[in-house]
Amino acid sequence: MNEIAPKTLRQGHPLDRAWVQLLILLTGVCLVPFGWFRGHVAPLIIESGINSLLLSMAATIASWYGLERLRYFAYSRRLSYVLPITSLSFGIAALAIGILRIPYSLVILLLTYLVTTFLNFTFAALTRASIPKRWLVPGGRINEIYEVIGPEDLLSIDQAEALLEEGGLEGSIIADLHFSHPVAWEKFLAEAAIQGAPVYHYRSVLELYTGQVRIDHMRENNLGSLIPNLTYLSAKRLADLVGSLILLPLLLPLFAILAAIIRIDSTGPVFFRQTRVGYRGKTFRVYKFRTMRSRDNTDPQVDKINDVITAENDPRITRVGRVLRKTRLDELPQIFNVIRGDMSWVGPRPEALDLSMLYESSVPFYRYRHIVRPGITGWAQVNQGHVTDVDDIARKLRFDFYYVRNASLWIDILIVMKTVRVMTSGFGAK
Fold first, then answer.
1. Which NCBIfam families does the record cross-reference, listed alphabetically (predicted)?
2. Any residues with CB less than 8 A from the CB of 11 and at least 6 apart, and which?
3. Would residue 304 be called left, alpha or beta, if left means φ above 0 and alpha means ψ between -120 and 50 degrees?
């Protein structure tokens, strides 16, 4: 099945072709030092210029590829990520220069960075400016997509045949491909594909726009399709460990400052410990900075669940705790869980043991989210925020399944960038 981008230029427009964008980017990057070389002929200067040009080209290709991959994820506003992705690519190039200790030209690096950023912004704006026509084929569960694409794009068989005859079938076709359509519609779908129109299963489009994967019945949802890339998960575990060991010494001074502030603000321990359910359903002790006062125990049967649920404007939250929760700094001690292998930096958020047992009894396939390591930040957290009731948990589970199906470096990068937005805006905090 074709990959789907939520917003693109009119189908067939040259600038919507990835290779055209890359060619323009590389041409722009190569033209920058052209005049510079003409006035500088010293061997060392030429060598530094060539080194800078090659690294700039590599960074440009990396930024182009990263932005191209991100456009296929839900909630990935490509325009918003041009600057961080381009800056990250050129930052890695600068790091390579420092490690290799090779001569370089700061002027060329800066100019090529500016050109690449400008062109990436231009392409992102153009692809955002126009949405291709989407035609819906009636039948089956196509009505489920009305929440993201209105029924006004629903075709009649007469319209479909007229479009084929006129050769005006631009855009994409969306249908329930698991439904047995009448012969006339089967012929239309086949002819549309022959004419070059992409044909998508409605669920693929729905998942793209909502960032959620639904599992309703074992019969019609192959859980095997949700098994993540095991090779990537192994590499990710190594990256988690190495990254945590590098970050830990840098975070320790911040930990000491926050610990002192927490002790001054309210009585009680600095750290909060809780049993949660993690990878493959195994329990572990999670660590957080304490942000709440202890609840007065009254009815143990009620408190067993209520103690692990944070309500809106919960009176137990301390003054410092409110800031820590809004900025997500209370989660930082979980770096020790990452080092131990209990968690990853990115993945579905782990739930408290009692809540997990409650949700397993109420939400179908809830336990399947434990197929990957839980994370300090996750796809559901950055798109939905804090949830408490069962209906919200069902939606959160669909976000988790979307992450499991699409687990890759690119969605992890997207989640990290969204996490920065969450930390600065306080989105979803309680």
1. EPS_sugtrans (TIGR03025)
2. 132, 170, 171, 172
3. alpha
Residue with the two structure tokens 């009649």: 156
- Determine contact, residues 79/121, Cβ cutoff 8 Å: yes
Spatial separation of the C-alpha atoms in residues 82 and 122, rounded to whole Å = 10
Determine the Cα–Cα distance for residues 314 and 302; give it in Å rounded to an integer: 16
Q: Which two tokens stand for residue 233?
A: 């998960």
The residue count for the chain: 430
Average pLDDT over residues 203-219: 75
R_g over Cα of the chain: 26
pLDDT tens-digit map of 86-141: 999 999 999 999 888 888 888 889 999 999 999 999 888 877 655 567 889 999 98
CB half-sphere exposure, 145, CA atoms < 13 A = 28
CA atoms within 13 A on the CB side of 361: 5
Place of tokens 């660590």: 287
Tokens 């137990």 label which residue? 316
What would the two tokens of residue 362 be? Answer: 């109420």
Exposure of 260 in the CB half-sphere (CA atoms within 13 A): 5
- H-type alpha helices, 39-105: 43-70, 82-100
